[in-house]
Amino acid sequence: MSRKAFILDTNVLLNDPGAILSFDNSDVIIPLSVLKELDKHKTRTDEIGKNARGINRTLDGYRNGSSLLKGIKLINNGTLFIKTITKASFELLPHELKASSHEVDTGLIALMLELKSQNTKKIHTLITRDINLRVQCDALGIRSENYRIADHRTSMNELYGGVTRASLSKEKLDKFYQKNELELDEIDIEDTVFSNQFLVIKSDLKSGSAIGRYNADSKSIKRVIEKKKVFGLSPRNKEQNFALDLLLDPELKLITLTGPAGTGKTLLTLAAGCQQVIESKLYERLIIIKPVQPVGKDLGFLPGSLDEKLAPWISPIKDNLNFLFQTSSRASTTSNSRQKKDDHYLSLLFEKKVIEVEAIAFIRGRSIPNAYIVIDEAQNLSTHELRTIITRVGEGTKIILTGDIGQIDHPQLDVYSNGLTHAVERFKEYQLAGHITLLKGERSALATLASEIL
């Protein structure tokens, strides 16, 4: 089998400093022009600057006793090279690109053309997150691929969804309903079952069905009972019921909810939070964190106090909270008096810090115990930002990540490299975490149609 070689663009290394070790049993080539471009970013104070400095330190560590020119053996059986782009490489460029030979992208194309002309058995592929560069490569017959940080998956449909299907004999299904518990080895299932994964169990005679959730510690399946109402809100489909089952389980410390707009991710999360903070008092505070674009930056460029700066971003959260408070108090006599009472009570909860809205820029350094934390729009967080937030979690705290991985606003992230996808995939094997992908839009027929066709 031909050995593979991967040439890394600057944007790959800035997005994931660990990209060097992402290609097992292969050669990894970093062009010298990419190193020069990395150097331009090292003084930045954001995550991009941090990654640029990290790459420089990594390469400096590799060169001790070895040569980046001759190749350095990596722990994944790969070999790392630093390669210059020669004058002969630029001679291979088509006429249209020679005028822009000073640009890094053009230099990468020149290098790829030179490697291609060598007619070796080695397969060279340029790895870049630049769409236009990949298009140019395709036009010139050069192999190129996008870089995906999360297990290099090829489709959103391949990402973990939190639900699988299984079959069971009618006798065992009846037993499941009687005891509300079943051993995993009693069911017929081919897929790997992860911690807190939901199982839609059908009878082999197609005469009945049941829903269960797998407990990895006891290696058993617990029957899921449908939730009737949570803080005035009733689940409208089975995925919403699954979500509430996870959100209301005090043993679970990290919940991830994904799905298109209008599937109820935020509303369900806030309803479960309000019930456990305000009614059952399982947690002392409900804290809502929402990424602000540019993500993770200081909000000082907006006028006014912190509350005024956050207002444009927290208004959807307040809309949901207002709806929940009105829904949970339908028994009041008149709608006007009820609304005034709800508005006053909600304002009081904000005033007493029972409900807080926090910016990512101010989360570092805090330790947050006994809280129910909601991170909305988590698909716009990098893995570094998400790590910063989760490591703030103190004893007795539950954290919920919600987002639509198909709707990412962060310019440096995609469906595979964002923090939410990373969390879903990394935590699925642990008993303290649970995940569900919501599928059906419940906001309105128009909202559901728009999320499908636009």
Task: Please give the domain count.
Answer: 3
CATH architecture of the largest domain: 3-Layer(aba) Sandwich
Strand content: 15-25%
Q: Name the CATH class of the largest domain.
A: Alpha Beta
Going by CATH, the homologous superfamily of the largest domain would be: P-loop containing nucleotide triphosphate hydrolases
Q: How far is the first residue's CA from the last residue's CA?
A: 43 Å
Overall mean confidence score, pLDDT: 84
Largest sheet composition? 6 strands, mixed
Structural class: alpha/beta
Commentary on this structure:
The protein is α/β, with parallel strands linked by helices and 454 residues long. It has three domains: 142 residues, Rossmann fold (3-Layer(aba) Sandwich), CATH 3.40.50.1010; 69 residues, Archaeosine Trna-guanine Transglycosylase, Chain: A, domain 4 (Roll), CATH 2.30.130.10; 225 residues, Rossmann fold, CATH 3.40.50.300. It contains 15 helices and 17 strands. A six-stranded mixed beta sheet has the order 3-4-2-1-5-6. A six-stranded parallel beta sheet has the order 14-13-15-16-12-17, with helices on both faces. It has a five-stranded mixed beta sheet with strand order 7-9-10-11-8, covered by helices on one side. A hairpin with a 5-residue loop joins strand 9 and strand 10. Helix 9 runs parallel beside helix 10. The longest helix is centred in the C-terminal third of the chain and has 22 residues. The radius of gyration is 26 Å and the shape is globular. The two termini are 43 Å apart.
